Fold each of these.
Amino acid sequence: PALSRLTDRELEVFRLIGRGLSSKEIAHHLHLSIKTIGTYRERIKEKLHIKHATELVRCAVHWTQAEEGGGGRLSE
């Protein structure tokens, strides 16, 4: 699975993106800076071979919905 490449913190950020939180909201929730969240977003995109932010959000939402509905996995 592609998500196995993510660290626990990257997976947490990915999950929060999937729940519709903005970078600012994620930063506040995790007590981190917005710049740090931006770095996590870029690392996630790199590891999952995603080029655009909109694709990242789409994948995160899809995965989060599947996870909450029965343990879905994102694969490449």
Amino acid sequence: MQNALVSIQILPQTPNGESVIPYVDKAISLIDQAGVSYRVGPLETTMEGELTQLLQLVAKLNEEMVKLGCSQVISQVKVLYNPEGISMGALIKKYD
């Protein structure tokens, strides 16, 4: 059951001070490959799934940025947890 929404804004310190956009694109690609439902926003990406799975994915995103040569990563993360279930659609349906 999907019991969590996790939003992440990932801000890697790039190796040579170049744009973070290619790194953010890589992070979004990894989210897509993980097979979780997600929605890209202008400042963060929100994922929907099981809390433990999503938190492991957050860790993987940070680790991947380091593998790509970033010396450090700031990740701003928001979590909505509801053990009875939650979905993005339920929260934003009146706005779509």
Amino acid sequence: MNTPQLSSLATQVRRDIVRMVHAVQSGHPGGSLGCTDLLVQLYFDTMTVDPSAFDMDGANEDLFFLSNGHISPVWYSVLARRGYFPVSELSTFRKLNSRLQGHPATEEGLPGIRVASGSLGQGLSVALGAAQSKTLRGDNCWVYSLHGDGELQEGQIWEAAMYAAHHRIDNILSFVDCNGQQIDGSTDDVMSLGDLAAKWSAFGWRVLSCDGHSFEALQEVISEAHGHRGSGIPTVVLMKTDMGKGVDFMEGTHKWHGIAPSDQQLQDALNQLESTLEDY
């Protein structure tokens, strides 16, 4: 897809997000809206995947792991629009017996999901295991992971970071959603993360950064990371985003981390997210 097409799709995904959360008055719109552009970029331009032949093994295709699983609405929307399951199934989000649970799960057998997530801090360990597995099998595809900045307050992240550097795992590209917000307030108020670039660098990672709302910037940083394959150094991208991106009254505040819009707020959001694509 070219950049205008990616941008158009991202707007539709944002429409999906606010509609899904509104319909059940439950879910996490803020971070989902903020990470929309990254997931659209990965699934529609970067990653080699075959939605029609999904299996849990994922051999000879790129893998993505969502560590901050509470932003499931954006992942579900992108997976559906990429062809993993019918777009109409988005209407079942968080409902009883739905495959689209509040946090991604494997029990229901939803295509595209290879590990349950949402217990924060665990996703990097899983992604590194998958990356090592690919190397051992001679599979040259990539593993991508996404983490919240507040999630970096979890100790397991840093254990995994040490592991990756020690084992020279360089077929992983991890993104940190640096929006400065978490459920109880700003990350600076809850527990300051300090100099994240210096921290990751000290743990032996190559540190890149980009604007998480620019497809050109995302493409450039991914290309740069790919160019370092074979160096034995894992790469992390500190991705600057705005929580609630695309809906003005949701942007930049932790208050929309995990609440749903009212009927009027939904309409206001949809008015801002004009799309030529079809809603589910």
Amino acid sequence: MERRRLACSRLRSAGYDERSQTLEVELANGELWQYTKVSPEVWRRFVSAPNPATFYDDRIAEEYSGRRVRR
């Protein structure tokens, strides 16, 4: 999965696999969270958002079930 750095103090990077519609988000503290059934449109909006952390809080963390895959 290709990862992109995010211009944000709370989020370090994010990656997306379109085939499985899986989103991974790495937080600044090193935790890695994985979300499934995330549409390609949500991914595009997330990585192009002016404030990725706000988009993550409002549109991903609250709307999708995530699981922590790394502490």
